[in-house]
Amino acid sequence: MNQHSPMPVVNPFERFAAAILPAGVAPDVRARFQSLARHAVADAGGAPLEHQEQDQIVFVASGATKLVARASLGREQIVAFHFAGDLVSLPARGRHSYSLVALQRSEFLSFCATDFLASAQDASCITNEILRRSLVSLWRCREKSITLGRKTAQERLASFLATMADRIGVPHDGGCVLDLPMSRRDIADSLGLTIETVSRQFTILRDLALVETTGRSTVTLTDIPALEDRAGHLPVAA
């Protein structure tokens, strides 16, 4: 779980540098990344990085987003959710098109992926950070594949909430509080469920005293180990 405190106003590139570039990185390397960065801002529902002709690497400087894939006949799939501090691979249009859609007012720094990776080669500590983040993304993709392929509706929602606890949860009374920026429809689309099913599973988890909900976005996880069990996760080895 992440402990959040009010974030001071910081230049988006400084946020990127603090998260991705190691302390003491050569000034010319830092300057090269700064020259490659393209700044964008979007309100909820905006997708300022659509229709790019090249693969992009995007740093979410603030806010929250969903990565949406589109197929023929207007079909869409929410691939992942990304939050402030995340580094996202945004492919150019291929067999599917992708867009990074803001869930709330968000700031981005985008880089041409080819130029970004070429610049990172000059500093192994940067490539190590990119590799670490890539492995985390791969792990999340595998977890979601298992969730979509083998889990019940209740296990899917419990898995989603447990993952959000790790990523954006604020500790509270032995559990944690989630301020979810995504809608119930977004959650349902991401999990391959209907909104009605998601609402029903929230009700069941409330009745089991595993979660409490306040308004449209605040969810309190009151018993995370029990929620993990409901998610079908294996017990952690002692």
UniProtKB/TrEMBL annotation:
Ranges for domain HTH crp-type come to 151-225
Q: Which residues are in coiled coils?
A: none
What the entry lists under PROSITE patterns is as follows: HTH_CRP_1, HTH_CRP_2
Q: Mind telling me which Pfam families this protein's record contains?
A: cNMP_binding (PF00027), HTH_Crp_2 (PF13545)
CDD domains reported for this sequence: CAP_ED, HTH_CRP
InterPro entries associated with the record: cNMP-bd_dom (IPR000595), cNMP-bd_dom_sf (IPR018490), HTH_CRP (IPR012318), RmlC-like_jellyroll (IPR014710), Tscrpt_reg_HTH_Crp-type_CS (IPR018335), WH-like_DNA-bd_sf (IPR036388), WH_DNA-bd_sf (IPR036390)
Gene Ontology MF term list: DNA binding; DNA-binding transcription factor activity
Q: Keywords in alphabetical order, please.
A: DNA-binding, Transcription, Transcription regulation
What superkingdom does the record give?
Answer: Bacteria
Q: What's the protein called, per UniProt?
A: Helix-turn-helix domain-containing protein
Species this chain originates from: Qipengyuania oceanensis
